[in-house]
DNA sequence: CCGCATCCCCAAGGATACTG
DNA sequence: CAGTATCCTTGGGGATGCGG
C-alpha cells in the first residue's frame, strides 16, 4: 500500500505538464476524428483526385460521407477543391501544403498498422 | 479536359497499391478511434496510473467512458490492469510494451497539434 | 476508491433515390 | 460525374445513482 501511495504522489506532481501535452493532441483529434478523414488524405497522397476516384479508393465510404468529410477538410485547409468548367463538370481535390504536413502522422499510423496486422495474424495462428 | 483525363488515368493505375496502403491505417484507426484512447495512452506515458489519476489528467472524460475505454485498450493489449488487494482496492493501469509502440504515432500527432495551434492563433489575429 | 447499471440524447454514419 | 435530400439506425457519450 505504501508503494501505491508513492506512485500516486509522484504522478500527481507531474499532472499539470501532462495536461499541457494533451491539448495539442486533442486539437489534432478534433480535426482528424472519424473513420474517414485520414484515409481520404491518404488517397490524395499521390496527387489530385476526382470525387469518384477517391470514393473508389476509400473502400466503403458513401457519397454523402465523402462529400461532408471533404468539406470539413477544405474548411481546415487540408484539401483544396478545384472545379473545371467542363460538361459534365469535373472536380479535383488536392492536398494543400498544410495537408501534406500530416504526412508523418499518417506514415507513423501506417507503420504501426502494418506491424499490428502482422501481430494479429501471428496470434490467431 | 485533356488534362483531367490524364490525371484520372494516371491515378486509376496506382489505385490497387493505394488501397493496400490504406488497410493498415484502417486497422489502426479501428483500435484507436474515439475521442479518448490516445489521450488515455498519453496519460500513461510517465508510468503506472490509478483510475482517478487518469480521469484527472484526461480532462472531461466521465468514469463510464474511462472504464469502457480502458477495457478496450486492455483487450487490445495496449494497457495492463493490475488490482492491489488493499482496502479499498487500488487499481493501477500501465502501458504495455505494445502500448509503448504507439509512442511515435502519439509524438507525431502531438507535434502536428502544436504547430496547428500556433497556426490557428496566427490566423485569428 | 473503482467502477457498473440505467436512462437518455445527439451526432456519425448508412441506404436509397434524386438533380444539374 | 458530382453531388443533395431524405429517412433511418447505431453507438458514442453524458448524467446520475448505486454497490463492493
From TrEMBL, chains A, B:
PROSITE patterns: HTH_HXLR. This is Transcriptional regulator. The lineage of its organism: Bacteria, Pseudomonadati, Bacteroidota, Chitinophagia, Chitinophagales. Keywords: DNA-binding, Transcription, Transcription regulation. Residues 18-121 form the HTH hxlR-type domain. It holds the Pfam family HxlR. Transmembrane segments: none annotated. The keyword Transcription applies. GO terms for molecular function: DNA binding.
Amino acid at each position: 500500500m505504501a508503494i501505491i501511495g508513492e506512485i500516486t504522489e509522484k504522478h500527481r506532481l507531474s499532472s499539470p505538464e501532462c495536461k499541457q501535452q494533451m491539448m495539442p493532441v486533442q486539437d489534432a483529434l478534433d480535426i482528424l476524428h472519424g473513420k474517414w478523414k485520414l484515409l481520404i488524405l491518404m488517397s490524395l497522397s499521390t496527387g489530385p483526385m476526382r470525387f469518384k476516384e477517391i470514393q473508389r479508393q476509400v473502400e466503403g465510404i458513401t457519397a454523402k460521407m465523402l462529400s461532408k468529410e471533404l468539406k470539413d477538410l477544405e474548411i481546415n485547409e487540408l484539401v483544396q477543391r478545384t472545379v473545371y468548367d467542363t460538361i459534365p463538370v469535373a472536380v479535383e481535390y488536392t492536398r494543400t501544403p498544410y495537408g501534406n504536413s500530416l504526412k508523418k502522422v499518417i506514415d507513423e499510423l501506417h507503420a504501426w498498422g502494418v506491424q499490428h496486422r502482422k501481430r494479429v495474424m501471428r496470434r490467431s495462428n
